[in-house]
């Protein structure tokens, strides 16, 4: 019996599906698509990779564009790194992605990392489908079946609704939906590092009013997280953090931008600190972790490089004694891609979900998103476990 015969016997399931026994030198990627769905002022963006044998893999590349022009431009260029390749060649795509991001101008970085991360998720979805296993099986296996999400009510609370009553109303909707953890960014109306003492005081008071209203709406026993969106320097963050103590916060996220400010704030507060949502790759997270910036790292599967990079970042965080709570505002595909990896992390804490953006969210994928009491059940279907529901997605390219 030749080696090829042995592979043929071992690969009988795959062969029965009309696929080759050896994925590395048979089924190959041969086309791509980009799809989008308008969600308020931005769009969710899905990238799709297709193989010669008819498999399709999807990934979330949403990066705050209204139409995915710039994301598509990067996908087109990066497609050349995977065209004719096996979906199992993740490290090869990663190497090309690292080069692409290193060469990107600062203003192009976000769309570049999103496109590269989306392609990477597509490859894992394809691998899972080829092997007939869920993605979590490819990352070490599940430690948990359900992933706890917090409801980020910040995007749902827009314009005139950014009042104590508006935030409280969205928090109550989240309570009714069963969530037991909530997040808001209460200082978005402030300038970054406001130097005028009166304006600073005014802005902080207003923000604390939002926090107070949400704490009252969710009661004392649910978790409350705030995101400072880098509005403060270390001195201001320490002062604002002290004023927020009565609200028993679960965490304070990105109160400052500069790593040295974050580190100073981190040392000064007993509350859990979190951040890193815009960082790309294990290399940027490694520097962030070494600088002692936060207790909990927040890699985004759409921005950090994808599912394998998310796992690697969680691993270095584990080594440093830190927790991992992926940043999340995403389509159901992005949240589920992250959830598969979260299910395998010993140091997972909580996943972010943008609550209340659009009422048809769950139906954008098939089967529809299964979110119960704020928990996402990680499916055992092959790959990420979703297909696009074409009623909600417009084709943009490919
Ligand atoms: Mg954030």
Condensed summary:
The protein has 398 residues and is of the alpha/beta class. It is built from 13 helices and 16 strands.
Q: Name the poorly predicted regions.
A: 1-18
Query: What multimeric state do the chains show?
Result: single chain
**Helical element count?**
13
Kindly report the average pLDDT value: 94
- The CATH first-level class of the largest domain comes to Alpha Beta
Description:
The chain is an alpha/beta fold. It folds into two domains: 3-133, Enolase-like, N-terminal domain (Enolase-like, domain 1), CATH 3.30.390; 137-381, TIM Barrel, CATH 3.20.20.120. 39% of the residues lie in helices and 18% in strands. It has helices at 3-10, 12-16, 69-82, 90-103, 109-131, 135-138, 164-176, 197-218, 234-243, 259-268, 281-290, 307-319, 332-342; strands at residues 29-39, 42-51, 56-60, 146-152, 181-184, 223-227, 251-253, 272-275, 296-297, 323-324, 351-354, 365-366, 371-372, 375-377, 387-388, 394-397. Strands 4, 5, 6, 7, 8, 9, 10, 11, 13 and 14 form a ten-stranded mixed beta sheet that branches. A four-stranded antiparallel beta sheet has the order 3-2-1-16. The radius of gyration is 22 Å and the shape is globular. Residues 1-18 have low confidence and may be disordered. The structure holds magnesium ion. Magnesium ion (MG) binds at residues 227, 253-254, 277.
Helices and strands in order:
Layout lengths: L2 H8 L1 H5 L12 E11 L2 E10 L4 E5 L8 H14 L7 H14 L5 H23 L3 H4 L7 E7 L11 H13 L4 E4 L12 H22 L4 E5 L6 H10 L7 E3 L5 H10 L3 E4 L5 H10 L5 E2 L9 H13 L3 E2 L7 H11 L8 E4 L10 E2 L4 E2 L2 E3 L9 E2 L5 E4 L1
Parallel strand pairs: 4-5, 4-11, 5-6, 6-7, 7-8, 8-9, 9-10
Antiparallel strand pairs: 1-2, 1-16, 2-3, 4-14, 12-15, 13-14
Helix pairs in contact: 3-5, 4-5, 7-8, 9-10, 11-12, 12-13
